[in-house]
Amino acid sequence: MNRLHLRYLIISFIATATVAILVQLFILSLLERNNAVLAGAALSAGWWGNLATAATVAIMAGRKAATGFTDPRIGRILGAAVGLWVGVGAIMGLVASTLVLGGQVPGVDVRPGLILTFGLVSLGISLIAATIAGRETAHPPEAEEEA
Fold first, then answer.
1. Nearest 5°: CA angle at 76, between 49 and 16?
2. Mind listing the pLDDT tens digit for each residue in 33-85?
3. How far is CA 49 from CA 1, 19, 139, in A?
4. Which of 75, 84, 88, 115 could, after both became Cys, cross-link 134 (CB 3.0–4.6 A)?
């Protein structure tokens, strides 16, 4: 594993978990008492925060990975490689935020299949975003002269 992959795995984990937890805590603070419906809304909103953060980190990672390369095919491969690790970090962040949600609202039953589905969607979006960012970052020098 490359240092860049490890760096963006950790950045993705910390960023997605933090955003999801903050969104969930905001949703839970809207009402005085916590119930299962509010916990479901907090879980869903936290996942949307996780997804948006993962996509943003994936774009940054894809650009960083492809910097200095001139072949868009290589940029696409490098972006996909780092996007995979960003997606794994997003899944880890989603699991961490779900555990925090379970601690905030006692008695809430969160289905592991739901978290797996949400996590796989976050992984897919991270992979696509980093692949496109890597491909667009790596371009031949003559393309810059024409533009």
1. 15
2. 667 778 888 899 999 999 999 999 999 999 999 998 989 999 999 999 999 99
3. 27, 6, 31
4. 75
CA distances from 88 to 84, 125, 130 (A): 6, 11, 13
Alpha carbons 127 and 23: distance in angstroms, whole number? 24
Spatial separation of the C-alpha atoms in residues 75 and 58, rounded to whole Å:
13
CA distances (Å), origin 115, targets 76, 103, 110? 28, 16, 8
Q: What is the pTM of this model?
A: 0.89
Q: Which residues contact 100 (CB under 8 A, 6 or more apart)?
A: 21, 24
Q: Angle 36-66/72-104 helices, nearest 10 degrees?
A: 160
Ramachandran bin of 37, using left for φ above 0, alpha for ψ from -120 to 50, beta for the remaining angles: alpha
Distance between CA atoms of residues 6 and 89, nearest Å: 10
